[in-house]
Amino acid sequence: MKILVLGDVMGASGRNALNKKLPQIINNNEIDFVIVNGENSADDGRGITQEIAEEFFKIGVDVITSGNHIWDKQETANYINKENRLLRPANLVDGSPGRGYEKYLSRNKKYKIGVINLMGNVFMRKTEDVFLEAKKILGKNDFKKRCRFLSGRFSWRNNE
Predict the structure, then answer these.
(1) Is 146 labeled as catalytic in the residue annotation?
(2) Which domains does the chain have, with CATH numbers?
(3) Which of 48, 67, 100, 114 has its CA 20 to 30 A from that of 79?
């Protein structure tokens, strides 16, 4: 199985590059599943809109992950509740709109892929501990299968 993971798509220029190149990359490399971080894909580089998310899905993105800019566009809070392919960090406070993890099928329906979206705490707003949250999610029955993918924004500080 081939999974393509792309980091932050930034603004209109990032979206244009993705629109132009992604379908060809998927076809030429027989990609089974595509994960893109889209939290900075709005024109101003902050947030994502429903229109942009649907554009990504149309060109072959299977899941959009996010981080601290997920709520920068007001419409996202409503859209994320309806669209299970747009993930927010799983370790946000309980009751946050949307979901932080989900199971999906590959393009050919042969593989189940569990995607968990987590956000670290260093230089970011306070969230639940990424490692405890990952352990909690991975301990659930629906995530005790073989294929998992963790997406996150992790920063470690080296004090040397």
Answers:
(1) no
(2) 3-153 (3.60.21.10)
(3) 114
